[in-house]
Amino acid sequence: MRIxxxxxxxYVGSATVRSLISQGHQVTVYDNLSKGxxxxxxxxxxxxxxxADADQLQQTLTEHQIEAVIHFAAFIAVGESTxxxxxxxxxxxxxxxxxxxxxxxxxxxxxxxSSTAAVYAPIETGSLTEDSPKAPDxxxxxxxxxxxxxxxxxxxxxxLGYTILRYFNACGADPQGRFGxxxxxxxxxxxxxxxxxxxxxxxxxxxxxxxxxPDGTCIRDYVHVDDLADAHVRAxxxxxxxxxxxxxxxxxxxxxxxxxxxxxxxxxxxxxPHQFLPRRPGDTTRLVAQAQKLxxxxxxxxxxxxxxxxxxxxxxxxxxxxNGYDD
Length: 327
Ligand SMILES: NC(=O)c1ccc[n+]([C@@H]2O[C@H](COP(=O)([O-])OP(=O)(O)OC[C@H]3O[C@@H](n4cnc5c(N)ncnc54)[C@H](O)[C@@H]3O)[C@@H](O)[C@H]2O)c1
Fold this sequence. Notes:
- It is a single chain.
- By secondary structure, this protein is an alpha/beta fold.
- It has two domains: about 1-170 and about 220-250, 3-Layer(aba) Sandwich (Rossmann fold), CATH 3.40.50; about 190-220 and about 255-290 and about 305-320, UDP-galactose 4-epimerase, domain 1 (Alpha-Beta Complex).
- Helix content is about 40%, strand content about 20%.
- It has helices at about 10-20, 55-65, 80-85, 85-105, 140-160, 190-195, 225-240, 255-270, 290-300, 305-320; strands at about 1-5, 25-30, 45-50, 70, 110-115, 160-165, 170, 205, 220, 220-225, 245-250, 255, 275, 285.
- The strands form four sheets. The protein has a seven-stranded parallel sheet with strand order 3-2-1-4-5-6-11, sandwiched between helices. Strands 12-9-14 form a three-stranded mixed sheet. The protein has a two-stranded parallel ribbon with strand order 7-10.
- β1 (about 1-5), α1 and β2 form a beta-alpha-beta unit.
- The protein starts with a strand and ends in a 7-residue tail after the last helix.
- Bound molecules: nicotinamide-adenine-dinucleotide (NAD).
- Nicotinamide-adenine-dinucleotide binds next to α1, α4, β5 and β7.
């Protein structure tokens, strides 16, 4: 299939692009490199472009005879979105509308969208199904929820076929250590923890110790980026014009912040000191996926089920690339 990956030079996008290429798909990456990395994708498939640019988007969709789009491009930092909702609403919501319009005008009928578990209402026990109540709390989460709605409306009105994937916590790196997580600023737990053994920070801050969990810290579901990539490859193949699907992607296992720190200590073989800090606005007690639907309908079966194995891939990447990609 001829596929356009917006934001394909980012963390999840570039892992997915590698999987798609290995399965024989013809991929074009469309990324403005505001957060992504040139070195994370083959140079010959990268178009440097902004999804705000309707003309360039339409030209790219037409010239490359694109059959399906995977839409990763977004700003993703929850905290930043509460300080600057304007740039989140512009880049995530308004620019996604520009993409949807460009697809409609050029007759591209298949879309796979990167959404997030942050759209769900808080829970204190159990796990989240795709039908669990929604209550996007931050401007970031709301922007993703709004895009989901726009996609559904485009599907109803114009016959767009879509699949929405709601990721839980993406983590880990290419097991060969060549590609990995390099957000700037980094806001994700595992890379921040690993900055301690790298000598880049003194300790890891733990936001809140009084949540209603066994050790008082928040619980998340950590899914390896290659398993996420595999879900995209399966999902894109199953989209038909007019079809509509939504899936959670997570392992179904919850780990508290303190458990992640302990697992990282075992992987790196040293103590990683932590410091408790006040709760952060927007953090919820527990985000754990029930991903049975994805397993059943797309035969998705995550390879990484042990958190230590996931952290080991991340550690290998960060140890060999302490400053991330060279670009
Ligand atoms: N990383 C996670 O744990 C996680 C969890 C849930 C959902 N998601 C979603 O997955 C997607 C990818 O996340 P990621 O971690 O790979 O982030 P990332 O920042 O590494 O990748 C996003 C990419 O989009 C590009 N981009 C941003 N605005 C653009 C624009 N206007 N035009 C063109 N390119 C643009 C950036 O340069 C970057 O390469 C995002 O949509 C995010 O909301 C990520």
